[in-house]
Amino acid sequence: MRGLLGLLLIVGAGGCVDDQPSLSFERHAGFVNGVGFGRVVSFSNDSTVKGQARPGTAKPKSSKRVSSGEWLRVVGKQIRTSPSAAYYPADQVFLGMGVAHPRTSQLPYGSDEPVARFARERHCNILRITTHRPGEGGPSDVDKFIAWGDEQVRICKKHRIYSILDWYHQSGYKFLVHDRARFDAWKDFWIRVARYYRDDPWVIFEILNEPIVDQDEWLQLRDRIADCIRAIRATEGTRKHLVLVGGNRWCNSSHISESWDGFNPDPARMTAIVFHDYSESTPEKTARNIDEFQKNNEIPVFGSEWGIKPGLKGAGVKECREQEIGMLDKVYLPRKISECFWSLSGNGGFLEQPENPWKSPGPGTPLHDCIPFSDIWIPRTIENASRCRIVVHPEISASAGQIAADGVAGSTIALEIKDQANWRIEYNDRAKDSVLFSTSHGNLEGTNPVTGLATGTAKVVLKSGRPGTADVAASYSWNAALWQYTAVDSYVSRPSFGYWKAVDGRIFSESRIARDKYKVSASKSWHAKGPGPHWLVVDLGAAYTVGRFVVHHDGADAAGGNPQHNTSDFQIQRGSTLGGPWKDLARVKGNTDSVTTHTIAPVKMRYVRLYITGAGQTDDPTARICEFEVYATARVTIQVKVGKSTAPILRAGRGRGSKPTS
What we know:
Elements: E1 7-10, E2 49-52, E3 73-75, E4 78-80, E5 97-102, H1 112-121, E6 126-130, H2 142-158, E7 162-166, H3 174-178, H4 180-196, E8 203-208, H5 215-235, E9 243-246, H6 256-260, E10 271-274, H7 283-296, E11 301-306, H8 317-335, E12 339-341, H9 374-384, E13 393-398, E14 402-404, E15 411-418, E16 434-439, E17 443-445, E18 450-451, E19 457-463, E20 468-479, E21 485-488, E22 510-513, E23 519-522, E24 526-528, E25 534-553, E26 569-575, E27 582-588, E28 595-614, E29 623-643
Parallel strand pairs: 2-29, 5-6, 5-12, 7-8, 8-9, 9-10, 10-11, 11-12, 14-29
Antiparallel strand pairs: 1-6, 1-7, 3-4, 13-15, 15-19, 16-18, 16-20, 17-19, 20-29, 21-25, 22-23, 24-29, 25-28, 25-29, 26-27, 26-28
Helix pairs in contact: 4-5, 7-8, 8-9
C-alpha cells in the first residue's frame, strides 16, 4: 500500500523446486513450539492406536524439519501446490484469497491471534500484514524487521497460513538506481531474511512493493531486482521461496507489460509479477492488461493488493459493489489469480451501511468484516480459495516404557493433538475439547479429565505399587465442526449474519465504541431469511466418530438474541457426500430451549446437516443459529510395564498409528 512498509502473510502451502529431503533449520522461532512438519501420516480417528514405548529410543527436543509438501511451485504461468501437499489439494493451482492487515500503531485492529482467526473463520488463505511503524522510512536492520513481524508469521503458521514479507520504502526506490551503497544494503537485507527463513515453506518474499521511478531508470532498477533475486537464490538451499516483484508505477496492471515483457528476473523461475489495481481500473481493463502480458510471458501474476475506493470519480455504493463483483468474477476467479484485499483497517467497513461513518474499529478483537461488502467477497472466498483441510490425529506417548513397582516411580503419559502432517494443533481453545485418561493397572495422578487443550497437549503420571502391565488410554473429544467448510440454502446478506458464523466458536454478540465514537455491534449467528426449510451443511474435513451435537439457538446469545426465535422443528442428519443423500440422526419437534444437546450411538461421518423446518416460536420464517457443534471422539492407547527394575527414561515414546480410512 502507498506509503507503507509491509510484512504480508498468506494462508496455505509453501514454494519448491523439488521434493527432496528437508534441510535442517536452526534459527527460525516461528514454528509451533519450535517443531516443524514431519512425514505425512494417516489415521483412522475411530480406531484404537496401540503403541509400546521402546527403551533406548528418544525423540529430539525439537524437530526443525518441515514437510516438503508445503512449498509452492511455479509451473509456467501458474502457482501450484506440491504433489505431496499435506493441507491443500496436491499438485493443483494454488488460488490464494484473503485480506491485508496494516499491522501498525496507526491502525490497531487487534492482536496477531484474533487477526489470524478472522481470516481462518472466513476461509481466507491469505493474510497480508504490514509492519511499517509511523516515522520510519524503511527497515534498516533485519533483526528489527523480523522482530516486528515474526510473531505474526508464527501465529499464521499455527493456522496453516502463508506469510508474504513485503518491503516498501516511501521514496519510490530511486535510491536503488543512484546509490550503490544503499542498493547493497537493500540486497544484503534480503540475503539475511532469506537466510533466516531458509527452510520455512510458509514465507513468501515481496522484495519491492510499488516502485516509482522514471522510465529511463526502470531498466536499471529491473536489473538490480534480478541481482537481488540471484543473491536470494544463492542463499537458499534446494528449495526456493516464491518471490513477488512489482512493475513500475505503483504496480498498476497498465504498466505490467512495459515493465516485465520478455524479462524473467529469476534464474530459478520461482517469481510472480504482482499488480495492484484499485478503482482507477475497470475489471475489463485489468483483464485485458493481464491477458496481454501472459500471452507473451511464461510467468505467473499475483494480485497482492487491491481494493474498492468509495467516492472515486463520484462512485457510490452501487458502483463500488459492481466493481468488486467484476474484479472477482471477471479477473481473479476465472484466471485462478491469487488476490488480497486491502485492507482490514482501511477501506471500507462503512460501505456495508452507508450511514455508518465508522471506518476504523479501534483496538481489540475484530468485530465487523471491514473489507467492503462481505456478502460479496466472503462467500466467493469460501467457495473458490484453495481449501485447507486439517485432519485431527491424537498421539499418545510415555516418558518411560517401564517403571518400578514401588508406587513412587512414574511414567508421564502425554497426549498431543496433531494433524495429518504430524504437526501439533495449538488453536483449539474454541474447540471445547477435552481428554479423559484411564488405565487398566495402577493409578493416574494429575488433572483428569483435562478440558480446553489450548496448547494441544495434556499429561498425567502413571504410578503403581504392584507389577503388571498398564494399558493407558486417552479418549479425546472435540468440536469437529469448528472453522470447517459450510454450505447453506440461504443467508442474510450482511456480514453480521453470514453462515460462516455458525461454526466460528463464538456465540454472543459483541459491541463497543470505536475510535470515532460510533457504536459497533456484531452478531455471531447465521440468519437464513425467507420461507423454509432452511439447512446448514458442515464438511468435517475427514470421517470421524461422532456421538453428540449441540445447537445454540438464537436465545443462547444473551447479548443480542431472543428466545422467541429459538428453532422449533429441526433434524440433524448425516450424508455420504456434501449433497447427500441424508439420513436422520435426531429429530426435534416443538423445541423452545435456547441450547439443545443431542446424543446418539457413536457413528462415523464426515458430512452433517442441520435441517430446519420450523424456524422459531412465531410466524417469522427466518432461521437463526448461533453455533452448531459436532463432537467427535478418538481413542489412543499405550502400554507401560510395571516391574522390579526401571528402564531408561524416554524423552518421548510414541504410539503407533493405524492406516487411514479418510
